[in-house]
Amino acid sequence: MVIASLFTNTTMFSSKSAAGRIAGVLFVTLLAALPGRAYAQILSPDPQRRGCDWTEPNSNTAYPETNARYFRLPIPRARARGLRLRIEGDYLASRYFSYQLYGALFNALDVIADHQIEPDAGSQSPFVGPTRIDPGVKAGGRYTVFVVFGDKPSRPAPNTLYAGTNALPRLRNYLFLRAYLPDGPIPLPTFRYEDENGRPAADGLIDTAACADTADDGSQRSAAPGTVAAGNAGTEAPATAALARDSRDVSFEVYRGLGPAGSGVVYNQDAGFMSARIEDRDTLVLVRFRAPSYPRLRGPVVADVRYWSLCQNRQALQTVIACVADRDAAVDRSGFFHAVVGDLAGRPVGATARRGFSYLPNAGLLDNGFLIYRQLLARTDFPGAIRRVPEGSAPEAVLGDYAPQATTCPRRVFSARSAAGDSAAQVFAACRAAR
């Protein structure tokens, strides 16, 4: 595709860097996967919205998070000043949700997370801070969010995203609704185009022809806006590819995005990421780090992060294999998380929660394994926040015990130490010593 060719030849995606190689492959994959039959399409009889409706992907691409769901809304350009997109929805029964706005090339433009969305009159939000959820407030309260076709001012209006004014002709923006750990069906927001006084936009002022490639193609339809979308989490995710040292060792590094402002292709603007590549398929890999706290009934009043997870992926294919969410993680009494990544022989005896380990499968023969550690909405003063690591600094020097450590481990060593009754921390130390 011409757009992909032009985009991957820029300095941002220089072939001289690992970031450039990953970004180029990732962007081409996204361009191929986003439109068409990979998506369940919602169609509206409203001519203003024909083809420009919520879709939910049915594909495993761009390193999904299996505990999340993603809905995409193409936003065509407005042909008149003063128009905006009005979105009305319910606060979700989920650990986290957000609206994230991207440009025609899937570059990040703006974001508003659940706790930043002010409720409509008479409603309450259960999200009272970046890492706080009020268990006494039920989901379902109402809110209204706007997308304005203009540049973001120094003092943005509440509940407002800004699409900017530099879009190329006939190229649309995209709005993603992300929901992590949703509890049950998701009520999809309704939307309409209107002027700044709330009057519906006149026919012809919205360039719906820009959404022609997302029109009905016979694929399965999902629920219409204003109803609920059932289904499982983990169908498609924002691009979270990260970099690892080209080494036989397994080491985690911080991913800082692909653009000058630190935002990559469909990058989650509320997240910090670290990753490690696994090239040796014939040995186990163990991971250990101090686990951040997260919102729960018996947890701290102010948690460290809203959500964290560790996922195993196939690096070149950009597909997810499995994820361990914070609530399912094996964390010992000292607060450390331990995980075992299997070898080609599969899951070893002793790699169980009872023995102190979470488990992630091997990536198989045809691709490298690719571990991604995510943090969403880390507290600004949390010492283990990934985003605190300055460029050029070793993560462990800044994050201390919160920095993920990984080691290869011969199966015989793991089996022997597990059989001897060693703790997960002792098994990790024995594996590291045996390298």
Task: Describe the structure in your own words.
The chain has 435 residues and is mostly beta strands. The protein has three domains: 1-33, no CATH class; 38-229, no CATH class; 253-433, Jelly Rolls, CATH 2.60.120. The chain is 11% helix and 28% strand. It contains five helices and 23 strands. The strands form seven sheets. A five-stranded antiparallel sheet has the order 15-16-22-18-19, with no helix packed on it. It has a four-stranded antiparallel sheet with strand order 3-11-5-6, with no helix packed on it. A four-stranded mixed sheet has the order 10-9-4-13, with no helix packed on it. A hairpin with a 2-residue loop joins strand 7 (127-129) and strand 8 (132-133). Helix 4 packs antiparallel against helix 5 (424-433). The model is unreliable at 1-50, 214-225 and 233-248 (pLDDT under 50).
Instruction: Tell me the strand order in the biggest sheet.
Output: 15-16-22-18-19
Rg to the nearest angstrom?
22 Å
Helix content bin: 10-25%
Number of domains: 3
SSE sequence, one letter per element: HHEEEEEEEEEEEEEEEEEEEEEEHEHH
How many β-strands, per DSSP? 23
Overall morphology: elongated
Q: Low-confidence parts lasting 5 or more residues at pLDDT below 50?
A: 1-50, 214-225, 233-248
How many angstroms separate the termini?
46 Å
Strand content: 25-35%
Structural class computed from helices and strand pairing: mainly beta
Mean pLDDT: 79
- Major pleated sheet: 5 strands, antiparallel
Number of helices: 5
